[in-house]
């Protein structure tokens, strides 16, 4: 099924087309979302929301971009929203524990994220890297994740993020520079 | 010097740690769970559509209870009238005992 057939099928609300879309994109969406939210159960929830959004807004999609780019855009937007929400909840939880916790103990400890697709010998380093990725700006995080986790080319990232190629190159350069700096601080203190 | 070299080596290897990364897959039957969630949402939308009807029904009950209460209060005061008439007729009000006339 090509993009046009898929789009026509989706816009006429054919369940076969929607099922095809979900089965074709579920791994791409889940993998992208997981790299950003860094929690498997939450990633599943967000991935479901992505497909619900696709289903509900398919009539607004005019085919100005590829279906894959459009889905990646929804996925990254939803994942960032979920990540921000979780961060705000953590901050609020920390504030409440400082108010009501016994002896100001930390009541919530984030668990280190290990991506299930990382090779065994790289697990520890990848965990450190994902922590550093979390400290990047949203745009740098999306560009870096789409390239290094999803394997998208810079050209494909321009379609997802709706920016120029030079902007993507600049984002990637800054992301790598910031990561090097963050990792240097981490390893120097070890 | 040696420490700096080690740190640079760690940074390089950490940045390369995502090479050969295999995509993470959702748990099996993702589509089934998605369908169930969409059906649930659709059901919630239907109940939301009916919510104004529930609100009007509730408002109707509140108005009925108010009318009933007003009716009962007015009915009670009209029942009290013969008693007052009796007291007035026989001069049994509280102040009659102090009447100096």
Task: Provide a short characterization of the protein structure.
Chain A has 190 residues and is mainly alpha-helical.
Structural commentary:
The complex is a heterodimer of chains A (190) and B (101). Helix content of chain A is 73%, strand content 0%. Chain A is built from eight helices and no strands. Chain A has helices at residues 3-11, 15-37, 40-57, 67-100, 123-133, 138-148, 154-161, 165-188. In chain A, helix 1 packs across helix 2, helix 2 (15-37) packs across helix 4 and helix 5 (123-133) packs across helix 8. Chain A starts with a helix and ends with a helix. Chain B is elongated. Classes of the chains: A mainly alpha (190), B mainly alpha (101). Chains A and B meet through helix 2, helix 3, helix 5 and helix 8 of A and helix 1 and helix 2 of B.
List the keywords.
A: 190 residues; Rna Polymerase Sigma Factor, Chain: A; Arc Repressor Mutant, subunit A; 2 domains; 8 helices; 73% helix; globular; B: 101 residues; 0% strand; elongated
Which bin fits the share of residues in helices of chain B? over 70%
Question: Ranges of chain B with pLDDT <50 over ≥5 residues?
Answer: none
How many strands of chain B?
Answer: 0
Q: Biggest β-sheet of chain A: count, sense, barrel?
A: none
Task: Give the H and E element order of chain A.
Answer: HHHHHHHH
Outline type of chain B: elongated
Whole-number tally of structural domains of chain A: 2
Q: Give the averaged pLDDT of chain B, no decimals.
A: 80
Helix vs. strand class of chain A: mainly alpha
User: Strand-residue fraction of chain B?
Assistant: under 5%
Rounded Rg of chain B: 41 Å
Largest interface: A-B, 37 and 26 residues
Report the strand count of chain A.
Answer: 0
Report the order of strands and helices of chain B. HH
Instruction: Please tell me what the overall shape of chain A is.
Output: globular
Query: What is the distance, rounded to the nearest whole angstrom, between the alpha carbons of the first and last residues of chain A?
Result: 52 Å
